[in-house]
Specification:
The protein is an alpha/beta fold and 321 residues long. It contains 15 helices and nine strands.
């Protein structure tokens, strides 16, 4: 969950030399950044340093990260003609630098720590494409979804094909687990999720199910979508911090593996409170088939790295006990 990044001095030293996109475009630098939290904190798995938007540029939707604003798509997708010009890419070829980074990371990890690859899910990618960046209400996205359904499904079909191809390419390159991030899908109602999103997720999970690589299905604000996520697919269902883990397990059933779900801001809380929340999450996770302790979303920039290390050590200690 965003292991490497702005909270780490080691990462910020690299950012003085390169932009985020320059880092991911240089496999040896992306490898170094990926390994930083593994070395510093002793986490149980490495997460590829990349960005969910990377497939958009070769598809024909260039973007940049504007200072203080996040990603900005230069030519947002608004009408059918815009969707037509988007290419369904061969990720192994068009994003070969990502695959090379995966190979370098696997070599450096030397079978000691597994590597997680990832991709953004079609809805989350579509929201950036249509809005032109991050949105608080997804008005344009839902406008296309409700008002021009044919164009919506055409766009989502292309994104679904690219995401599927991208994750399979990461697996071929050496990723030992992959995670699908549907970061903003929690803004949808269950009925809209089933009608407008589910048809485009099912082919992705069907293709991934044919591999021997575990798949993590993650979103935020998805309490009312958990059962649908389970039915669509994934070996592990991610649970964000807004949803009590034991409640989520009750919805999903005891045969489901869950991931989560510490509130990221608790990394800056007093140790007594942090300890109590760690223990509570571990106890609640016992009701699942298995439980991967994690944050409920990404590490925040103001986080003290020593707090991340403390949580890892504490979870290891309590789990062993």
């Amino acid at each position: 969950m965003r292991q490497a990044g702005r909270y780490m001095p080691e990462y910020m030293a690299i950012r003085k030399k390169y932009t985020l996109l320059e880092i991911v475009d240089r496999p040896e630098v992306a490898c170094e950044v990926t390994l930083q939290p593994v070395i510093a904190h002793g986490v149980d798995a490495a997460i590829l340093f990349a960005d969910i938007l990377l497939p958009l540029a070769p598809m024909g939707a260039s973007f940049e990260f504007a200072k203080g604003e996040g990603p900005v798509v230069h030519s947002p997708i608004r009408v059918a003609a815009d969707v037509e010009r988007l290419k369904v890419i061969d990720a192994a070829e068009e994003l070969s630098h990502v695959m090379e980074a995966i190979k370098l990371i696997r070599h450096e990890l030397d079978q000691k720590t597994p590597l997680i690859g990832f991709a953004g899910a079609p809805f989350t990618l579509a929201s950036y494409l249509i809005e032109g960046g991050k949105s608080s209400n997804y008005a344009r996205t839902k406008g296309m979804m409700y008002g021009d359904t044919a164009t919506w499904h055409k766009l989502m079909g292309k994104l679904s094909a690219v995401v599927q191809n991208y994750l399979l390419a990461q697996i071929d390159a050496g990723a030992q687990v992959v995670q699908l991030f549907d970061s903003w899908v929690g803004d949808l109602s269950p009925s809209d999720y089933v009608e407008y999103i589910k048809p485009h997720l099912e082919p992705i999970f069907a293709a991934l199910a044919k591999t021997d690589v575990p798949v993590i299905h993650f979103g935020t604000g998805t309490a009312l979508l958990l059962k649908h996520q389970r039915d669509i697919g994934g070996d592990v269902i991610g649970v964000d911090w807004r949803t009590p883990l034991d409640w989520a397990i009750a919805q999903l059933g005891p045969d489901v593996v869950v991931q989560g779900n510490l509130e990221p801001n608790l990394l800056s809380a007093p140790k007594a409170l942090l300890d109590a929340r760690i223990e509570d999450i571990l106890e609640k996770g016992r009701g699942a088939k298995s439980h991967i302790f994690n944050l409920g979303h990404g590490i925040l920039p103001h986080t003290d790295p020593s707090s991340v290390k403390y949580v890892v050590e504490r979870v290891h200690e309590l789990s062993a006990r």
